[in-house]
Design brief:
mainly alpha, transmembrane helix, membrane, 3 helices, transmembrane
Length: 72
């Protein structure tokens, strides 16, 4: 019980610590707009789709296993 409370307090404290994120969206956009063939833009779009799809697949797999356990 005490370890759960300590873990929760630690998790809250870590989530309150600010950190700097150096996003470069403007730079990526400038590079993609300056390219005429569009190959880099297609690659960026495919990467975004892959990064977006992986969490959904993992959650779907988790729910599938939970469903199988509940049905058994």
């Amino acid at each position: 019980m005490n370890t759960k409370r300590t873990f929760l307090i630690l998790l809250v404290l870590i989530s309150l610590i600010p950190f700097d994120a150096d996003a470069q969206c403007a730079m990526c956009r400038a590079v993609l707009e300056s390219e005429s063939s569009g190959k880099a833009a297609e690659g960026i779009n495919n990467g975004i789709v892959y990064l977006m799809a992986v969490p959904y697949v993992l959650v779907a797999g988790l729910f599938y296993f939970i469903y199988r356990k509940m049905r058994a």
